[in-house]
Amino acid sequence: MSDYNFLMESRLSAEQYQVLSLLSRIASEQGLNLYLVGGAVRDLTYGQQVVRDLDFAVEGNPQRVLRQLDSRALAAQPAKGTMRGLEEEVAPPRLDYQRFDARRAVADLHFANGARAELAMSGLEVFSKPGQRPEIRPVMIFDSLKHRDFSVNAMAVSLHPNSRGLLLDPTNGAADIERRELRVLHSRSFLEDPLRTYRLLRLGLRLGFKPEEKTQLYLDSALEQRVWERLDPSQQARELRAILQEDDPGRIFKLLAERKLLAGLDKKIAASRIPYDRFAKIRSVCRDVPGADPFLLNFNCLVEKLGSSTQARLSARVVADPKATKMALGFERDAKKLGRVLGSAKSKLPSQIYALLAPQPVELLLYLRATSPRAVIQNRIKNYFHKYCQASTRLARGELQSLGVKPGREFEAIIDRTFVEQLNGKIKNHQQLVKRLRELAGIKEPPPKPPAAKPRTPPSPPRLGKQEKKAAGAKAAPPAAQAHPAMKGGGAARAEAPAAEAVTSAEPRRKLVPSAASQKHAMRSARPAHGSDKPQIPKKGRRALKRSH
Predict the structure, then answer these.
(1) Based on the domain organization, do 62 and 118 belong to the same domain?
(2) I need a labelling partner for 77 at 20 to 30 A (CA). Which of 106, 228, 350, 444 fits?
(3) Residue range 90-96: average pLDDT?
């Protein structure tokens, strides 16, 4: 069985994990049982590297959790120990936008760190008529999971402190994930909720799953009855929002157009020409920037050629957030204005590019890169994301503090100055950085250290010439040779001298080895004559003996 505590810590992004830790802490304080449900558990079980849907279910009234998410109430309450096991105090993520659907008891949450989540009451959908909006009745989590759309989405992980990481899988969805199948939980699933027909096609393309055999029969029967025509505007908006949040929405729109299902989402969209190539370009530029959200770019791409009234209607239902709506519908105007300055000589230096692009929304920069035909604009935006933004994370704050400069206005001015010089290539290494920090802070360079003393080596003996070698050889006395017992007087010593005489050299440490010829001569001298016990005396020795007598 998978360790879901480890999977949540390793697979969720840092921003998503902050939101999960914050909601689980609030629910625990309120005495509520909170669960991670639906797509997040499915993606964790399947082994997806990116978890798209962050859905939570609470047994009880979700308003008790939402009241505590007021950013003003939590601004001064740091969440201790909630950042992946760290013990330091970390400020909780701030809530930027909240929309609560009282009829469905579901809240859409947008946080300042970029994470999105959905918090719903653990409930049971009761359909009075097929295709009509259901009535939500509060139930326990097991009953809620048994009446979901597909078995792969009917799993939950407990976030309560006493059972954190426990998997709940009443419909055996983990086995369907292993078989890569999508299975509905009852035969009237598509008839009661026609939105599930779109959801099955969308999940099938994203995950590469196929409908289970009976599920395929139920789907074909529902399409023959044209159940997709029964969707109300709120259901259409929910599915359009889900498609636009996909990694490749162009492929999904193309499949729906081939099956003639686009009219079930919006007739104006079905009658328009969908720019599939623009969707592919947006997908490419968003993949190049980690953490980029393509939702607003995809929405602009979908409605760009529609009339202003249709744009206003769809943005109010699909985007909902007024601030995000204004940004999405103003991309073209803002991008033209920014492109004129970015492509001019005023934005030639890296520091000028950074100063121009840093205050702009990331979505606007991605839109400009995806739509601008000028290579210079595309390259400057690319360098901004891949070089300049990364350089901004390596500011020399630690080095400046180590020099004794306290944080303040002067501190920040020095940091900004050195950062600009780093971007423009005037500071290229750490040594130059520290030197420049000292200059701007008015700190003198430390005195250079004295050179280390080298160990003394004994002087080598002088080299001797030929005359000096002869003189040294004359002064050195040869070792006395021992006379053979058979020899008398000093003649024997003089006879043995040629073989045993020590040779002195100009290099006293060098050991001289007698040659092979001298060794052979000495052996012959010491060998006794044939038939005689007396040793044989060499000729030179005999002459010396005769002269001595």
Answers:
(1) yes
(2) 106
(3) 77
Residue 411, in any domain of the structure: yes
DSSP percent split of the chain into helix, strand, coil, nearest 5: 50, 10, 40
Cα–Cα distance for residue pair 480/482, rounded to 1 Å: 6
Distance CA(54)–CA(40), nearest Å, equals 6
**Which two three-digit tokens encode residue 274?**
């969908």
Boundaries of domain holding 411: 394-446
* Angstrom distance (rounded) from CA 355 to CA 406: 25
384 is a domain residue: no
Do 174 and 193 reside in the same domain of the chain?
no
- Residue whose C-alpha is closest to residue 125's, from 30, 209, 189: 189
Count of beta carbons in the 10 Å neighbourhood of residue 540: 12
- Residues 8, 109 within the same domain: yes
Asked if residue 150 and residue 2 are part of one domain, the reply reads: yes
Q: pLDDT at position 539, please? A: 54
pLDDT at residue 473 tops 50: yes
Task: Say whether both 44 and 153 belong to one domain.
Answer: yes
Distances (CA, A) of 495 to 174, 503, 512, 515, 533: 107, 17, 21, 18, 19
Is 493 within 8 Å of 501 (Cβ atoms)? Answer: no
**Domain count of the fold of the chain:** 3
pLDDT at 99: 86
| Cβ burial, residue 411 (10 Å; 0-12/13-18/19+) | middle
Same-domain check for residues 145 and 22: yes
User: What's 74-121 look like in SS3?
Assistant: HCCCCEECCCCCCCCEECCCCEEEEEEECCCCEEEEEECCCCEEEEEE
Give the pLDDT confidence of 54-89 residue by residue, as tens digits: 999 999 999 999 988 865 444 444 444 333 333 334
d(CA 437, CA 337): 37
Domain-embedded: residue 425: yes
Q: Are residues 5 and 99 in the same domain?
A: yes
Asked if residue 491 lies in contact with residue 500, where contact means CB atoms within 8 angstroms, the answer is no
Written as one letter, the residue type at 337 is K
